[in-house]
Amino acid sequence: MAMRWKNTLKESDVTEEATFMNRRQLMSGAAGFGIVGGIAGGLVGAPTGAKADTLTPNSFEDISNYCNFYEFGTSKDDPAKYAGALTTSPWSVKIDGMVEAPGDYALEDILSKMTIEERIYRFRCVEAWSMVVPWNGFELADLLALAGVQSGAKYVAFETALREDEMPGVKYPVLEWPYVEGLRLDEAMHPLTMMATGIYGKDLPNQNGAPLRLVVPWKYGFKSIKSIVRITLTDKEPATSWNKANAREYGFYSNVNPEVSHPRWSQASERQLGGGLFASRVPTLKFNGYEEEVASLYAGMDLKTHF
Ligand SMILES: Nc1nc2c(c(=O)[nH]1)N[C@H]1C(S)=C(S)[C@@H](COP(=O)(O)O)O[C@H]1N2
Ligand SMILES: [Mo]
Predict the structure, then answer these.
(1) Residue 256: which of 299, 291, 221, 287 has the closest Cα?
(2) If you ran DSSP here, which 8-state letter would residue 223 be given?
(3) pTM for the whole structure
(4) Pocket flag, ligand 1, residue 69 (CB < 6 Å)
(5) CA 23 – CA 290 distance, rounded (Å)
(6) What is the CA 303 to chain-centroid distance, rounded?
(7) Helix, strand, or coil here: 298?
(8) Distance from Cα 197 to the centre of ligand 2, integer Å
(9) Phi/psi zone of residue 97: left (φ > 0), alpha (ψ -120 to 50 degrees), beta?
(10) Is cis: bond before 205, omega within 30 of 0?
(11) Does ligand 1 come within 6 angstroms of the Cβ of 224?
(12) No. of helices (H) and no. of strands (E), the chain
């Protein structure tokens, strides 16, 4: 298990490391026992005595060969074929809007300040297939803290790189480019929300959104925007690509919900990747199995209206 960790904590600062461990213990306490998946999945190797991981990750091959990244084409194998052309180094992320320290942040500077950990999360596409991914990355909250969120900010907007010379799919107007996404600030600050930099302890394959992509495990996969170049703090709900393309089918929230059907198909069950085309479907879980951790974010909201 130790080999699955890619620890980029540069200065072995004892205090920082202790804080990190405390936080993980805190999180295991918050998650409780017996939850399938959730934060417990990220505790592999942690010295907390927490319940061992109960999720079995999909293979590296599955995860990196069956992708949605429309900038490289709309077939599941297009990203694996064409995303190699994406230049991912150097990379910088513009952080702007309602922040204390707006600017262009070089990825290596960001990474030098972040603790990379492994989180094994369920991943559920709106198309009703799913997989389990051992992500490496850090909490989005830690990146936002680096930029300093101003008190009036309510939402976070994200933007993917747009490179006409490197992305064969952007010739086609399947979506309005660049791909954009957004979260409410409290969703963005939630400890489950991460910025992924790798899978299986290796750098993120380009087709999975290198060098930096969002992962929001309780929402449909399209919220997890890839190859991010800009993060904007705002007080208005940001536009999102799939909502712009078809507001009736894709809402801003897009929380995984077996009780709310897509207009063209049921969301009550899903096909697990790796099980083969004819494998039986399994029931979809509310908030993708993270209900205990995130349901309070939506207290009092009608999830059928705010889908
Ligand atoms: N920029 C960008 N981000 C994107 C997409 C995309 O087409 N472009 N597809 C989304 C969808 S629909 C899904 S299901 C996930 C797929 O992530 P994966 O290919 O790493 O499994 O990425 C999401 N992020
Ligand atoms: Mo998706």
Answers:
(1) 287
(2) G
(3) 0.85
(4) yes
(5) 19
(6) 21
(7) helix
(8) 19
(9) left
(10) no
(11) yes
(12) 8, 12
